[in-house]
Amino acid sequence: MLRETSGKEAGEHETHFAFILFLIYLASFFLRLPARIPALGLMRFDFLLVGTITFFVLSNQSTKGSRLDDASKFLLAIFVYSIVTLPLVEWPGSVVNNGMMAFIKGAIFYFFTLNLVTNERRLKWVLGVFVGCNLIRVVEPLILHLTTGYLGSATHLGGGEFAGRLSGAPMDTINPNGLAFVIATVIPFLHYVFAPSGKKAFAVYLLLIPILLYTMGLTLSRSGVLALGIIAFGIWWKSSRKMLLIVLGVAGLAIIFSTLNDVQKDRYLSIVSDDARQSATAQGRFDGWVSDFKVALNRPIIGHGLGTSREANWNVAGKDQISHILWAEIWQEIGLIGLVLFAMYLFAMIKNFQGASGLIKKHLSTNDFLYRATQAMQVWLLMNLLFSFASYGLKSYEWYLFGGLSVALMNAVRARISKNEKLPLVHGSSSKENKFPLAHRIR
What we know:
Radius of gyration: 22 Å
Low-confidence stretches: 1-10, 423-443
Strand content: under 5%
Largest sheet: 2 strands, antiparallel
Distance between the termini: 21 Å
Oligomer: single chain
């Protein structure tokens, strides 16, 4: 978990090989390499990577004897709480066999990121691999659609009619909403981090945005469109050219809407209109939220057990699926106590982003990579908070990878300030500016 600096050198040479393995693991995880290459699946490639990386991290002398920061304490508290409450939950076997393992698989991203992403260069590599792999996840099903007509999913229009929806590629595991989430995830990083890095990068950015928006339309994801709206709002809010963005946005919306087919127009109009053909499915989503919270109220304090949302929904409400709203999922599984712990973890992540942003504005240039990365991560967080009302995620990677990145970003900012202005990396300072923890001291 996240560890505060002990005042010693991080020993980056000791974790160099582990960091390379971490990049390979990120690529394997997002691109599902074991599913694509049978030999990797047979050898349990991802499991071997995780085991090897964990060994190198735990054997690194620079991480020994250091303390846990607040965010790590909250994550550890969730895990310990899930163990302590085993005698009180409804399905302890499911918690042990499924819930805890799934939680560990998600939280491992936090553990690796905080112990391995120890400088700005490594942060660039992680973001590059992350964005690059997720772009592949978007482009692959799009190419399959254009060449073979692949869609992968469908939605009911009413009256016995269905419309196709683009989901992830056959080797991927994401449904249409998941693909929309991937698209919404990469856009802030393309806009803030990639596009300003050069003229060629900006040209590629201008080429990619229409492709991503076209793919988003094929998903028929209403939550995805709302996420894009949040991203656009975040970019507009942070921009100094608000009027220009309003004009471009209105023009862009007019052009995009004119290119949609009747099914797509009806789908997205159903967000705001009761007269659209697919308004019933939108209402069904709200009804599902009500049902999910009723299930949570069945065991409101302790919950039904980590990883048991689907079982709880089936046994209590007769609905055979996991809750599709993060907050209901958490409440159903680990109760109000766990919900508070997770909210405190998110608050610690937000404080890291805010702290990094404040330090950058005070000491660094707004054209700096670290500033652009901070802007992208803040807009991503705003978007993901919206998406949390349309998808589950307690055991998903994103909250933990970005929780780790929030502190890795803070580490890189402090290291840059120390290098540029000879400011000491103060541990345990009581000032507001220095209250954010460090995993390591960055060389």
